[in-house]
Amino acid sequence: MSMMRRILSRSRVRDARARLSKQVTPSNYVALAQECAMAGDLREARRVATEGLGQFPTHGELRRIAERIDKQDRESRLGELRSELVEGPRDAVFRELVDLLLESGDVSRAEQTATDWCAKLDGPEARLAVARARVERFIADRGRDVGQLAFEALDQFDELRGSDKRSWRLRLQITTAIGAWREARRAAARLLELEPGSPALEARFRTLDTLCADAPDVNQALREVEKTGRLVDDPTHEQESERDGLAHDVRPVLRELTRDQEIRAALYLRGSTALVQGPKGATAERTARQVREVVQSGRTVARRLGLGRITDLRLEGDFGTLSAACSEADSAAMWSSGKLTTSQERALVDLVGWRPTVDGVER
């Protein structure tokens, strides 16, 4: 950065900081964080965004800028690590790279990096990294084939280091998640051999022992997870509502979205809840049912193809455009005659994760 640009950046940061001091608003926090990032001070930008989220935890733009700052910081470190690997592969560099990718949720790149590690410096640590990445990929994707690869990776590591507690913890994690209780009990028993006298493990073993009757084997459990898209320990919709406390009412947001004449319908779907703005009566019910089927089909196809969880989808045709933002628990969608604006797309993203207060179809 040139001297003049550095001076101008500092001036803009000072001005943005002064505006925030005079008026504490989400937009002023966003402006200051952006100026700090543009000035190259990612640490201060992250601090400002974190402070802003403490004041306004539900503000969508603040969340997004905090995520962008974290991503930029991670990408910088990832670039440094990749440069080091070009100079010469080392176990420590590969390990940090895999750890950082897993922490950032980039499971596919973590798995590829771990596979490259095995190819260049095959050893127990590299194989454990492959197992970790595949377990995490299964937890995210929930596809049977990915789950089988995770168990194969754990078996390959155990052939080298059958007494390593880390692999047995991973095995306990994945078998508990899918409800393969007999295999989970075996993992807990092995961990007790490696950590005798652990009260937590002893209690867990006793709990697993009570669940083993008529428990599915690993393959059966993996098929069920792929079919339903849910792990055994996923919270129910009712539990999530209790955990999140007072629900937001999304209906005013849906009404606002349908003020645009090109928006034919705006929907929020969660479990048995279907809130629809636009169509009325039986048409509203039919629209909600069809959109729910589209979202569920998208989730199933993504799992089977190993694409991970879908976060958004779009269908275009003679009917117009159907756009949706999705999580595993809920989704928000708009049916429009044309392409959505950037603000409308952001509104969909912000709706996901809200909790409606009324079950049923709004009329």
Q: Describe it for me?
A:
The protein is an alpha+beta fold. The protein folds into three domains: 3-75; 104-109 and 119-228, Alpha Horseshoe (Serine Threonine Protein Phosphatase 5, Tetratricopeptide repeat); 246-351, Beta-Lactamase. It has 16 helices and five strands. It has helices at residues 3-22, 26-38, 42-55, 60-87, 91-103, 107-120, 124-141, 144-160, 165-178, 181-194, 199-211, 218-228, 237-244, 251-257, 281-304, 342-351, and strands at residues 263-270, 273-277, 312-317, 320-326, 331-336. A five-stranded antiparallel β-sheet has the order 2-1-5-4-3, sandwiched between helices. Helix 5 (91-103) packs antiparallel against helix 6, helix 7 runs antiparallel to helix 8 and helix 10 packs antiparallel against helix 11 (199-211). The chain starts with a helix and ends in a 12-residue tail after the last helix. Residues 237-247 and 354-363 have low confidence and may be disordered.
Chart the SSEs and their pairings.
Blueprint: H1 3-22, H2 26-38, H3 42-55, H4 60-87, H5 91-103, H6 107-120, H7 124-141, H8 144-160, H9 165-178, H10 181-194, H11 199-211, H12 218-228, H13 237-244, H14 251-257, E1 263-270, E2 273-277, H15 281-304, E3 312-317, E4 320-326, E5 331-336, H16 342-351
Antiparallel strand pairs: 1-2, 1-5, 3-4, 4-5
Helix pairs in contact: 1-2, 2-3, 2-4, 3-4, 4-5, 5-6, 5-7, 6-7, 7-8, 7-9, 8-9, 8-12, 9-10, 10-11
Widest beta sheet: strand line-up:
2-1-5-4-3
Provide a count of the helices: 16
- The gross shape turns out to be globular
The CATH superfamily title of the largest domain: Tetratricopeptide repeat domain
CATH topology call of the largest domain: Serine Threonine Protein Phosphatase 5, Tetratricopeptide repeat
Overall domain count? 3
CATH class of the largest domain: Mainly Alpha
Report helical residue fraction. Answer: 55-70%
* Gap from first CA to last CA: 57 Å
Structural class: alpha+beta
* Topology, number of strands: 5
Please give the largest β-sheet.
5 strands, antiparallel
Q: Provide mean pLDDT, rounded.
A: 84
The SSE order reads HHHHHHHHHHHHHHEEHEEEH
How much of the sequence is in beta strands?
Answer: 5-15%
Our Rg estimate from Cα atoms comes to: 24 Å
Unreliable stretches (pLDDT < 50, length at least 5) are 237-247, 354-363
Protein name: Tetratricopeptide repeat protein
Organism: Engelhardtia mirabilis
